[in-house]
Amino acid sequence: MRSELLNAITAVNDSAALEAIRVRALGKSGTITALLKTLGGMSPEERQVKGPEIQELRLAVADAIAARKMALDRAALDARLQSETLDMTLPVGAAATGSVHPVSQVMDELAEIFADLGFAVATGPEIEDDWHNFTALNIPETHPARAMHDTFYFPDAEGREAKMLLRTHTSPVQVRTMLTQKPPIRIIAPGRVYRADSDATHTPMFHQIEGLVIDKGIPLGHLRWTLETFLKAFFERDDIVLRLRPSFFPFTEPSVEVDVGYSIEKGRRVIGGAEGWMEVLGSGMVHPKVIAACGLDPEEYQGFAFGTGVDRLAMLKYGMDDLRAFFDGDLRWLKHYGFRALDVPTLSGGVGA
Ligand code: DAH
User: Fold this and answer.
1) Which CATH class is domain 102-337?
2) 207: which strand partners?
């Protein structure tokens, strides 16, 4: 019995068959179990001889099964590792041929900078209705700003009341946020916007980022501080000088256009200093009519908003001068201006690092 069992155990090649042998020998009605049961009917003298023999047989078979099981398991694991090889030493940098587009990079940088100031990222649809894009933002039907936006409208569809359009700015996300969130609100909203306009400095699709703060007791000074802090972090310079000029936007009162000072270094304009001024942002205190249109009481809540072009920020920071190249998909341009996918912008590492 011993040699028959040990031979069978060595010959077996899968764990199910091995388990069957175990049950046949050591299971409840196994052959060795049956032998053990015979001990009870033996005389003490006989038992003294047979007992150790049977126990030794049981242990030898159990050990052989355990050893065979370990060998089979290891073989199975080896086979699996062989078939699922993955070369962990292959450098990702060499394999990663793609790059992060400067627009995505700048949006990531902005999200990082504003997250540090307690702003969440909000999004809204690119296909909007004219209430969110215009009316709620205090741009009524007859307002000349509607014409100024060169809007792409969708053809009127039967049964649809609202006029649908491609959003012309990210400002409707202000409206959507105020309608769905309770103050205090602190959001930025980056995204694509569309206008029927195309020349060296305009593309029909471009990117904006919107900022909105709504709370109690928010004065214009908070706007100035926030923008200054953001621009210093973004351009990674401390000598950022802002100039606020009175302006007009239907959705803000008062409205301010924000210029940032530049200086000339090696014949090039760089942000910082105050040798000249460049317009970078539209902003202002959110108009009470907008706050009311979003269902909040303007006597109780106020705040500020700002909006700017992400593509332009990218051009200013990283020194590209043709906007159209952004959307040509030219691999040489992408290789040159793109960012390594593994370099995630962080404030501690320098957002543009
Ligand atoms: N929506 C404006 C545009 O597309 C930009 C803007 C100006 C946004 C002032 C604002 C703001 O939030 O306060 O030209």
Assistant:
1) alpha beta
2) 192
| Confidence tier at 250 by pLDDT (50, 70, 90) | very high
Give distance in angstroms: CA of 170 to centre of ligand 1.
8
| Site residues for ligand 1, CB cut-off 6 Å | 169, 171, 210, 249, 252, 282-284, 305-307
Atom of ligand 1 at shortest range from CA of 286: 13
**pLDDT band (50, 70, 90) for residue 269:** confident
Which ligand 1 atom minimizes the distance to the CA of 284? Answer: 13
Q: List pLDDT tens digits, range 95-133.
A: 567 889 999 999 999 999 999 999 999 999 999 999 999
Helices (H), the chain: 2-11, 15-26, 31-38, 44-83, 92-95, 102-116, 130-133, 144-148, 172-180, 220-235, 288-293, 310-318, 331-337
pTM, to two decimals: 0.73
Ligand 1 binding pocket mutation candidate from 173, 306, 312, 313 (most atoms within 8 A of CB) = 306
